[in-house]
Structures are given as structure tokens and as C-alpha cells.
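Hi, here's the filled form for the chain we discussed.

Project: internal
Contact: R.S.
Residues: 163
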Amino acid sequence: MQDNKNNLKPEADFSESRRNVLLGATVMATAAGLGFSNKADAAMDHHHMHAVPADRQRVIDASLGCVKAGQTCIQHCIDMFKMQDTSMAECADSVQEMLATCTALSQLASYDSRHLKDFAKVCINVCKDCKKSCDKHADKHAACKACAESCADCIKACKEYVA
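And the returned structure, exactly as it came back:
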């Protein structure tokens, strides 16, 4: 035989659950009637309406292009080093600096940093150095050519942004 207390407990839990559901529905209806729901929706819509301005997006895209090309170029330099060819050591050094600088630039541009314009000026100089080093090898190595071209693009984007 089953104990009466055990039989009543599920009903009591069900009643309590039903009460909580009804209470929650009442609170939601009251909040909706007071306009809280609309304000929350408006705040969410407002958050999604922001777009990155075109000039800043251009800096982000150009700096990430440099990072992508620079990673390929630095791997090419490493492959040359493995073959005992150190002729690209200067290129590797400048690409390493460019990678660090352009990575930081893309992040600062994404964050809309108050230091972005000043940092973009620094990045112009770093990319000029990298482009100069990569240009020396561009006729022999596609990775160096692509890196030099991406640096030229980043220089242009930064100059447009700073202007």
C-alpha cells in the first residue's frame, strides 16, 4: 500500500509549479503593459544599429590584409633559413615588426581607440620599412611581392584615415 503523504506530494508540487507559472505570466503581462518589454526591445535594436564607419573599416581590412600576407611571407623566410639561405633576414625582421604593428592597428581600429590616428601614423612608417625590405625580393618571391603590396595598401588606408 502507498503512503498518503507520497500521493499528495506530486499534487502539491504540481500546484506550486502551476502557481509559479501563473505568477510569472502575471508579472510578464504587467511588465508588457507598463512598456518594459518595448524599452528592452528598443535597447536591443539600438545596440545592433551601429556600423563601423567606412574609413575605419578600411583600416581594419587593410591591416588584416597585411597580417595575412605577412604570415605567408615570414613562413617563406623561415623556409629559406632552413635551406641555409639568410638573404631574407632583413625581410624577416621587418615583417615581424609589421605583423605586431598591423595586428595592434586592426584591434585599435576595431575598438575605435582614441589613439588610433596616432598609431596609424606609426603603422605607416613600419609598413614603409616592411615594403622596402619585401620589394628587394618581390621579383623572385611571390610571398614578398604580396606582402609589399599589402603594406602599400595599408599605408594608403592609414594615410586616408589620418587625413
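Let me know if anything looks off before we file it.
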